[in-house]
Structure formats: structure tokens, C-alpha cells
Design brief:
single chain, alpha+beta, Nucleoside Triphosphate Pyrophosphohydrolase, 7 strands, about 20% helix, globular
């Protein structure tokens, strides 16, 4: 993790939006950056690894679930400065909608907790606004792919 602090280049990350009815799978981060925040499961792409493989690996490591990667939902940058204004972290994150194809849900790796949470109750969790926005975008894609209209 130290090599990611005060980087000389952005790091490429992936995240998986996993829905179950009107709920989304979230993890509570157990490490920096964002320790204690609820987040989409995912992590860094390793050198020589495809984005698809990285996403499946990271989700399995953090949640115990095997997934099939579906559609790209959003690309965004996460840029964090320290208290002195120096660039502390810089990530480019690709968030995909994913389907569960196996495994058993359990928090592991750098996830302190993992579980499915109601889309309508996201404002009660410690989520970054950008995370909530990408969840809402992914939920619309999920509902359209599943052939159902999102609740109003």
C-alpha cells in the first residue's frame, strides 16, 4: 500500500456493482484509503492481468463470491490530497455491473464487513457521494437488463 501513497502516476482500479433485487453488495473498508467507509467491492489491477480477471479476483478476495463481469457503468478518478495539499492517492476506477455465479458471502481481505444493503437506504451509510451515484447508475442498468422497471 505504501507505493500507492504519494504516487508518481495514477493507479488503475476496478469495482463491481452486484445487485440482489433492490439491494447492492457493499463492503466496509478495513484499510486506507477510506477506512471505515462503505464501498463497492474491488481493488487494483495487477501488471499483466486483464481488467475482467482483476475484478473477479478482487471480488472473490473481498466477499467470497464468484462473479461474471457484465457492463461498464462508470469510469471516474479518485484524487485525494493530504493535510498539506500534497497528492496522497490517485486512482482511475472502472466500475462494472456483475452477476454472482457462485461462492458464499463473507468479508475477507481488506473488507471489514460485507453485505447487501437497500438501494433506498444508502443515505444512512457512510458512503462517498460518488459511490452512491455510481450505485444508482448501475442499479438502473441492472433493472433494465433484468427486465424490470426500477421502483419509484
Amino acid at each position: 500500500m505504501k507505493e500507492r501513497m504519494f504516487p508518481d502516476r495514477p493507479w488503475l482500479g476496478v469495482g463491481g456493482l452486484i445487485f440482489q433485487n433492490d439491494q447492492v453488495l457493499l463492503i466496509k473498508r478495513g484499510r486506507e484509503p477510506g477506512i471505515g467507509q462503505w464501498s463497492i467491492p474491488g481493488g487494483m489491477v495487477e501488471v499483466g492481468e486483464t481488467i475482467n480477471h482483476a475484478l473477479r479476483r478482487e471480488i472473490l478476495e473481498e466477499t467470497g463470491l464468484n462473479v461474471e463481469v457484465q457492463d461498464l457503468v462508470k469510469v471516474f478518478e479518485r484524487i485525494i490530497h493530504d493535510g498539506k495539499g500534497r497528492l496522497q492517492y490517485h486512482y482511475v476506477v472502472l466500475d462494472y455491473w456483475c452477476r454472482v455465479v457462485g461462492g458464499h458471502l463473507s468479508a475477507s481481505s481488506d473488507a471489514e464487513e460485507a453485505g447487501f444493503y437497500s438501494i433506498q437506504a444508502l443515505d444512512r451509510l457512510y458512503l462517498l457521494p460518488e459511490t452512491e451515484q455510481v450505485i444508482q447508475q448501475g442499479y438502473l442498468i441492472f433493472r433494465s437488463q433484468e427486465g424490470a422497471d426500477p421502483p419509484t
